[in-house]
């Protein structure tokens, strides 16, 4: 995607009957989470708010009129007109390399949302929360963590599976999360940082039994990541006795980047 028209001004909002509408979104700030991942901080006039776990469609329009649309989860809870998206660069992708490496401050894109009503975390539903993320699946999970920090609703445990330390997102924030009501496991699958006792490898039933929550606590379980990760973790939770009706999943798959 080269020189999208969305980097200028004047992207018009187009209404969908009885649903979300396209809105102009201006990049007002950003954070580099790791070399391949960037959080975009957007100002969206008229934004109606959202729930942790929801996502938006992002639309870029090139000068010749060609458009590309991709979906990205919001990585922070509602905060007025502010919307945060964490985007990971997909090799040979069409949209993500532009968003991660080239979208300049002050640029304007379009967003449609909020979208989704199943994979959402509501602080008004007090219960223990067991959150499991694979790779960039941490983005919507992080929105839940941040909402929980604003308004704790029972104990929280986070198990975050990632390849290596250079893929870690929100590292400083997660390091400050553990406490009497919260716990975090960083499960590296390929390479671990120095000082970590757990050898590299995928999340195991032993990991979930030790660092998760017992089924007797009836936690709300949220699993997000690649399809293989989601299916394996969901099956393990069920085998450990968790009620399938309390396991909510979100799968990330190839979309052309």
UniProtKB/TrEMBL annotation:
It comes from the Bacteria. InterPro entries: Cbr1-like_FAD-bd_dom (IPR008333), FAD-bd_FR_type (IPR017927), Flavoprot_Pyr_Nucl_cyt_Rdtase (IPR001709), FNR_nucleotide-bd (IPR039261), MRET (IPR050415), OxRdtase_FAD/NAD-bd (IPR001433), Riboflavin_synthase-like_b-brl (IPR017938). Residues 1-32 are annotated as: Disordered. Pfam families: FAD_binding_6, NAD_binding_1. Residues 1-15 have a biased composition (Low complexity). Its cofactor is FAD. Residues 20-121 form the FAD-binding FR-type domain. Keywords: 2Fe-2S, Iron, Iron-sulfur, Metal-binding. This is Ferredoxin reductase. It comes from Actinomadura gamaensis. The lineage of its organism: Bacteria, Bacillati, Actinomycetota, Actinomycetes, Streptosporangiales.
